[in-house]
Design a protein that fits this description.
- The chain is mainly α.
- The chain has 13 helices and 4 strands.
- Helix 5 packs antiparallel against helix 9 and helix 7 packs across helix 13.
- It starts with 20 loop residues before the first strand and ends with a helix.
C-alpha cells in the first residue's frame, strides 16, 4: 500500500489557512494546507508501525496502528493501543478531536467509497466514540470538565444525520486495498500472557461500557449502529474478511447483550479459519460471560498457542 504522493511545496497553491489533506483518488492526495504530517490510513501493519514511530505523539498514528493491530493475533495489544490513542487525543482537543476524526474518515469515504480500509477504520472511530460517550456519561461531570458539554449534547435526542461535519486538522490520507496487499508481516510474539490476563484485557472496554448513563444510551447505541453498518458494508464487498466478522460479532454482542448470537458467529469463523487465533480469543471472552470457565480457558489457551507459532 503505497503512501500518497506528497505535493511539491513549489507547486502547492492551496490556501495555507486551511489545514488538512485529502485523498481524491487511489494513491494520490491533494494538499489544502501546510501540514507537517502525512499519515496514511492503512491496514498495512509495517507501514502503520513506522508512522507510529515517526509520530509518537500523534493520536492519528496511534489510532491507525491500533486498527492495523486489530487485524493480527495481538488482540490485547490492539486494545492497549486504542487506549493510548484515546489518551493522546484527549491532550489534543478531547471530545472535539474525536468528532473531527470521525468527520475526516466520513469525508475520506466520500472520495473513495470502495476503500474498505477507510470503511474499517471509520467503524472503529464510531466504536471509539460510543465507548467514550458511555465511559464519560457515567462519571461526574466535574471529574471530566472537557467532556461535560459533549455528554450534555449526547443526552439530547439524536440527530438523524451522521456525526460531525468538521474535519481533522492533522493530515490523514488513504491508500487503497488494490494498491498493495495487506501486510503479511508477523507481529513479534510478546511475552505469553496467561489466559486470565488475556481475558482481563479483552473485557476492559466492556467494563467501561457498563458505566453508561441512561440518558446517553440512545446516542451510544447510535454510534454502535453506525459502526455495525460500516462493517456490514465492508462484508458485503469482502465477505471473507475474518477480522471484520469477529469484531462485528463483538460489537453486536456488546451493544445488544446477545452473547449467544456472537458465539455462533465466532464458532463459524473458527471453523472456516481454524488457524486464526481471533475467533478463539473472542470465544474465550464469550464463554467467560456465560460462566463457562472451562470452554473459556480452552479457547483462549488455543488462541495463545496458535499465536506462539506465528499465526
Amino acid at each position: 500500500m503505497a503512501a500518497p504522493e506528497t505535493p511539491d511545496p513549489k507547486t502547492n497553491t492551496a490556501d495555507p489557512a486551511l489545514n488538512s489533506q485529502w485523498l481524491i483518488k487511489p494513491g494520490q492526495s491533494i494538499s489544502v494546507s501546510m501540514a507537517t504530517e502525512d499519515i496514511v490510513c492503512t491496514n498495512d501493519l509495517a507501514l502503520a508501525k513506522k508512522q507510529r514511530e515517526a509520530y509518537p505523539d500523534s493520536p492519528e498514528a496511534s489510532f491507525i496502528y491500533a486498527v492495523a493491530l486489530s487485524r493480527t493475533s495481538q488482540v490485547e495489544t490492539a486494545l492497549q493501543e486504542v487506549r493510548r490513542a484515546r489518551k493522546l487525543a484527549e491532550k489534543d482537543g478531547g471530545p472535539a478531536y474525536f468528532d473531527q476524526m470521525i468527520g475526516s474518515y466520513e469525508k475520506m469515504l466520500t472520495y473513495y467509497p470502495e476503500d474498505n480500509q477507510v470503511r474499517y477504520h471509520l467503524a472503529w472511530a464510531y466504536y471509539m466514540k460510543a465507548y467514550l460517550l458511555a465511559k464519560y456519561s457515567g462519571q461526574a461531570a466535574g471529574q471530566n470538565p472537557k467532556y461535560a458539554e459533549w455528554i450534555a449534547q449526547a443526552k439530547k435526542p439524536a440527530d438523524p444525520s451522521p456525526a460531525s461535519t468538521t474535519v481533522a486538522s492533522t493530515t490523514v490520507a488513504s491508500t487503497t486495498d488494490a494498491a498493495k496487499p495487506e501486510s503479511t508481516e508477523k507481529v513479534p510474539v510478546q511475552a505469553v500472557a496467561s489466559p486470565s490476563q488475556t481475558l482481563g484485557n479483552l473485557t476492559q472496554i466492556r467494563k467501561d461500557m457498563s458505566q453508561v448513563s441512561p440518558d446517553a444510551v440512545p446516542q451510544v447505541k447510535r454510534y454502535y449502529e453506525l459502526a455495525l453498518t460500516k462493517l456490514d458494508d465492508l462484508l458485503a464487498r469482502q465477505p471473507d474478511d475474518v477480522w471484520a466478522r469477529v469484531y462485528r460479532a463483538h460489537l453486536q454482542a456488546e451493544s445488544s447483550g446477545n452473547i449467544d448470537q456472537a458465539i455462533v458467529e465466532w464458532q463459524k469463523v473458527k471453523e472456516a479459519s481454524p488457524s486464526n487465533p481471533a475467533a478463539y480469543f473472542f470465544l474465550g471472552e464469550g464463554y467467560l460471560k456465560k460462566g463457562n470457565l472451562k470452554e473459556s480457558l480452552t479457547n483462549v489457551s488455543k488462541a495463545i498457542a496458535l499465536r506462539a507459532i506465528g499465526n
